[in-house]
Amino acid sequence: MKIRVAYSENEKDRKAKLDAAVKGLFPDTKVKETAPKDGFLHTVLTVPRPTKTTK
User: Fold this and answer.
1) By CB distance 3.0 to 4.6 Å, which of 28, 29, 30, 42 could disulfide with 34?
2) How confident is the model at residue 28, as a pLDDT?
């Protein structure tokens, strides 16, 4: 699952809280920062699929 977040410079603290919350729920989450576009910064959080626990 991918979560895309667009935010401005003054919302970096909110984005950090969101990153921490998602990483708390899904520790294997990968975070990718992208270049600024149209005045917004972007982050993509990739949550891996869970491993099968049953046969």
Assistant:
1) 42
2) 92
Place of tokens 């699952």: 1
According to DSSP, the residues that pair with 2 across neighbouring strands are 46
What are the two backbone dihedrals, phi and then psi, of residue 46, each rounded to the nearest 5 degrees? -110, 115
CA separation for the pair 50, 16 (Å, rounded): 24
What is the edge-to-edge ordering of all strands in the sheet holding 40-46? 2-7, 40-46, 30-37
Model confidence, pTM: 0.76
| Residue 26 to residue 18: CA distance in whole angstroms | 12
Q: How far is CA 22 from CA 16, 19, 45, 46, in A?
A: 10, 5, 8, 10
